[in-house]
């Protein structure tokens, strides 16, 4: 098929008319489909239902370092849970702090702690005047939300197929002491599904920040969330940092939100002893401890890290056909038209689509009118502003698979219509 | 028995010698007893074990306003849980926000929110320079910890048998705009077990603060935690506030920590629409939502508020004999000596003992050497400083009842020894 750019006006008009016909047909169906957020679907949730039966009448509530998980205490979480997360992230259990049901909450609290207490002997961030954070784009809207909430200026850094553009990261971080951190989703990044290359991880671990209190927020949300038979691997940043004596430079986050239940999982932080000590200066006032029964429930259900990995194969079995359907549909409907590019990730929760510049908002609007809710255009950029108005995050996990197929067909129609509208202007 | 003050030196010395003999006998037993924290004991925890079986293979995860409790979403908590807490606190469910497992965490986050965002159109607290909080004393050490963490100066107000001294509260609050709030445990206060009188609640609800952004932190931790057959009743502060059009003046907190499991309960805030809107400006960045499965588990287990009340009767059956043993022992061992006073609460988790001035630290030290851990002397005052060195918080709930009896006997010996040591100086 010819690219749209190479077609004459009449051909474009004809194409738009045909598409508008299909579009009106879809609209008439009064659909209500949602590809907005990275929510597991019902089929995935069902995989973990037995965790709810993990605790029985015979359960012993005593664990390695907790006399009774039902009671108060154990600020850092039970040892069994710290060990399990440690295995997932490749760090010792002494470097793991297990929290509540939300890694986002732990990231928020970590930034709050830096704002209020600071680190590395520097003043608290909220006493340092104007400070900044680097935000690889496109990225995760909730990361940007946290920095925006705390009034931290966000500076964008472009993503490349191997991670953030490290030339830019190194240049900015080493020259500007007001840059206090960077958000990273190093494996199967949100939304592109990019895994940082070994070189990228090594360059992160070798950063020479102008700010002593610079911190990498390493959100390893999709550490074991493969959807392909050729999964990506991510270098262990703690190992690399240790080689350079820089293990204080990172906070790593993860959770079981997309392993067991999004609303009722367990989240954790991995960090150096210094960093954990700083965080605990705040946590010790904030709470007596997080829900150890839910930690215990998870531990009993999984038994060990092999149990977690086996469980992830079940998610993969559900997700692989969905992601294939999404990328196959994009390929079939849009390839060769010169109006869109997309990723084909080996894991994670999203497919990132770059539509023709200036068309993302229009695509989202057209979809919405036809009953398909997408993540808002711009959401993958700080302040919701995509300078090219081009990136759209597609989340294939939540709708039933039949609906996903219809939603993707509508999406492709809308991507084409928006491009045609623009070319015909 | 004669008061110690009326005895001559020789009689005092003789008494001290006798007591020292008993004390050494206790010491020789190498005991390890703990009356430090208000932790429910194993017998109480067992009462709630069936909540762990509340969710079964047949459980429907869909609730009134939540399509699937396992998934993301529902920032304010499921409607069923909001209604249940609303009944407990006497407010509409629309005024309830249900959180994670810790009301302390919700109080911490509320203060953080006021620091960062402020309220009532005033500047955030952290932009107002030096600010203060009123702290009725003796009070709850973790309340004081939160204010101390945020650098808020604490001003003490004496407790009376009807609540904080309201003459002082009114005078300070109406004259000093740097006073931004007050900590209250209005029912079965920690540590004295005092319930605020109707007049006290009405005076709180009629406060005319100099600071528009003044807030009452109403920690209703023991709302339904009776231990006597003549329980106290607390006036509903929201009703009183509404009469005065001042419903923005309070944040009320509660949890099921001492109803089901301390480490795995559910906490909630009740607040006016304005206040909830302010809190949600922060929560919406902090988390996608709290553990709805644990909310659902609680709802299934209790069914309704009558179920909660019936459940509390089981706690009462465990606690009543323990509190009786504590106050009976105090009565038997210390009454008439003129060296100690104590409360006899109708509910809550503590008995507050005022020993002879200047003796609290020594009592705690003597107890510790004999293997009985008490809450640190001074802990019931801001900055850990009891000006009279007199108040000790006794927590009768945690140790097995046999151990409690021994611990109380040792405690009374130590109270007497410390008084004698002082009188003999």
Helix content of chain A: 40-55%
N- to C-terminal distance of chain A = 22 Å
List the helices and strands of chain A in order: HEHHEHEHEEHEHEHEEHHHEEHEEH
Question: Multimeric state of these chains?
Answer: homodimer
Protein structure class of chain A: alpha/beta
Strand order of the largest sheet of chain A: 2-9-8-7-6-3-4-5
* Largest interface, C-beta closer than 8 angstroms, per-chain residues: A-B, 53 and 53 residues
Q: Report the major sheet of chain A.
A: 8 strands, mixed
The low-confidence parts of chain A are none
Average of per-residue pLDDT values of chain A = 97
Number of helices of chain A: 13
* Overall form of chain A: globular
User: What Rg of chain A, in angstroms, do the CA atoms define?
Assistant: 23 Å
Number of strands of chain A: 13
Q: Approximately what portion of the residues of chain A adopt beta-strand conformation?
A: 5-15%
Characterization of the model:
2 copies of one chain form a homodimer. The two termini of chain A are 22 Å apart. In chain A, 41% of the residues lie in helices and 14% in strands. The mean pLDDT of chain A is 97. Chain A is globular, with a radius of gyration of 23 Å. In chain A, helix 4 runs parallel beside helix 5 and helix 4 crosses helix 9. In chain A, strand 4 and strand 5 form a beta hairpin. Chain A is α/β, with parallel strands linked by helices and 425 residues long. In chain A, the strands form 3 sheets. In chain A, strands 2-9-8-7-6-3-4-5 form an 8-stranded mixed β-sheet, sandwiched between helices. A 3-stranded antiparallel β-sheet of chain A has the order 10-11-13, with helices on one face. The first copy, chain A, has a two-stranded parallel sheet with strand order 1-12. Chain A has 13 helices and 13 strands. Chains A and B meet through helix 4, helix 5, helix 9 and helix 10 of A and helix 4, helix 5, helix 9 and helix 10 of B.
């Amino acid at each position: 098929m010819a690219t749209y750019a190479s077609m004459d006006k009449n051909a474009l008009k004809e194409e738009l008319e045909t598409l508008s016909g299909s579009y009106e047909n879809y609209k008439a169906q009064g659909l209500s489909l949602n590809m907005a957020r990275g929510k597991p679907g019902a089929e995935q949730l069902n995989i973990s239902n037995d965790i709810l039966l993990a605790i029985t009448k015979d359960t012993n509530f005593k664990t390695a370092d907790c006399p009774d998980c039902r009671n108060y205490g154990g600020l850092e979480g039970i040892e069994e849970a710290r060990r399990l997360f440690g295995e997932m992230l490749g760090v010792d259990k002494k470097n793991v702090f297990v929290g509540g049901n939300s890694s986002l909450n732990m990231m928020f609290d970590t930034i709050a702690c830096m704002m209020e207490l600071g680190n590395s002997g520097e003043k608290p961030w909220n006493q340092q005047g104007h400070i900044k954070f680097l935000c690889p784009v496109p990225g995760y809207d909730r990361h940007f939300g946290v920095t925006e909430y705390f009034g931290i200026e966000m500076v964008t850094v472009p993503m490349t197929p191997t991670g953030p553009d490290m030339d830019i990261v190194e240049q900015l971080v080493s020259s500007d002491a007001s840059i206090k951190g960077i958000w990273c989703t190093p494996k199967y990044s949100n939304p592109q599904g990019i895994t940082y290359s070994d070189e990228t991880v090594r360059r992160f671990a070798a950063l020479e920040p102008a700010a002593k209190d610079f911190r990498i927020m390493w959100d390893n949300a999709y550490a074991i969330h493969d959807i392909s038979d050729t999964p990506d691997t991510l270098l262990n940043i703690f190992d690399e940092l240790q080689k350079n004596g820089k293990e204080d430079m990172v906070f790593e986050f993860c959770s079981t939100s997309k392993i067991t239940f999004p609303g009722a999982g367990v989240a954790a932080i991995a960090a150096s002893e210094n960093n954990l000590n700083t965080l605990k200066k705040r946590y010790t006032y904030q709470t007596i401890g997080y829900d150890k029964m839910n930690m215990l429930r998870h531990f009993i259900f999984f038994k060990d890290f092999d149990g977690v990995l086996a469980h992830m194969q079940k998610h993969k079995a559900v997700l692989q056909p969905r992601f294939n359907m999404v990328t196959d549909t994009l390929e079939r409907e849009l390839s060769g038209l010169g109006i869109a590019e997309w990723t084909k990730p080996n894991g994670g929760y999203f497919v990132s689509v770059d539509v023709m510049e200036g068309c993302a908002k229009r695509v989202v609007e057209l979809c919405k009118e036809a009953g398909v809710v997408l993540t808002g255009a711009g959401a993958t950029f700080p302040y919701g502003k995509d300078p090219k108005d081009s990136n759209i995050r597609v989340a294939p996990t939540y709708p039933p698979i039949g609906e996903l197929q219809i939603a993707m067909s509508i999406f492709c129609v809308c991507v084409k219509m928006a491009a045609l509208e623009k070319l015909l202007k």
